[in-house]
Amino acid sequence: MNIQNKNAKNKKVKAVIFDFNGTLIYDSPIHCQVWREFVPANGGGEVTDEDLEKRVLGRDNAQILTDFFGELTDRQIEQMSYEKEAEYRRRCRISDTFRLVDGAAEFLDWLKDQGYPITIATGSEVRNVNFYFESPELGLTKWFDRNKVVYDDGSFVGKPEPEIYLRAAAAIGQKCEDCIVFEDSLSGVLAARRAGAAYVVALGLGAAKEKFIDVGGVDLAVEDFCDFRKFPGFGND
Hints:
There is one protein chain. By secondary structure, the protein is of the alpha/beta class. The chain has helices at 28-41, 49-56, 61-69, 74-93, 104-114, 126-134, 163-171, 186-194, and strands spanning 15-18, 118-120, 179-183, 199-203, 220-222. The longest helix is centred in the middle third of the chain and has 20 residues, at 74-93.
């Protein structure tokens, strides 16, 4: 698979879209541990490392639940999602890793000063999004307009389909081909590539370009935002 935007080389970006979980905050280990416990406890079998990589990270709850449990009613999906996410939020509250990734605040300040439109495109449900915006540890309201955040509201198919990124770009008055996307998951990178993003940066613990070759590739792979002036598309590279 080779679906990189071949016209993006040396292109200046006009806006920035962030995935959230595992990208702006390193909460993926919390999500993964909850799924490891939740799925077998509800009769869905063991969750392997490969399952987490390919069937969980970056995808919305409806996709994950039906993948592990088969056909479910909307009511069952809602109830199971509620239980899983309530436990996830409980663990976030007591975790010392529930904070912005290193360098993120400085990068967000710089984007704000430079006037770049920014938003978040996340597979999280509304209760989690509200939780993030209400958490003083993150301080998201300093940089983001909550009303422009695109999240799993059940009105579109989630990652790896491109709709979430197309909607996020539109929410800030831009085309995806003029945006840089920050992602950490295989499904998220594929979604960004399918949406035609100018650049896709893989950001997260252990990020490596080689990991994303089969889903269209990434332009850069980094573990945090500390060297943000090296990111492509800002005229600094």
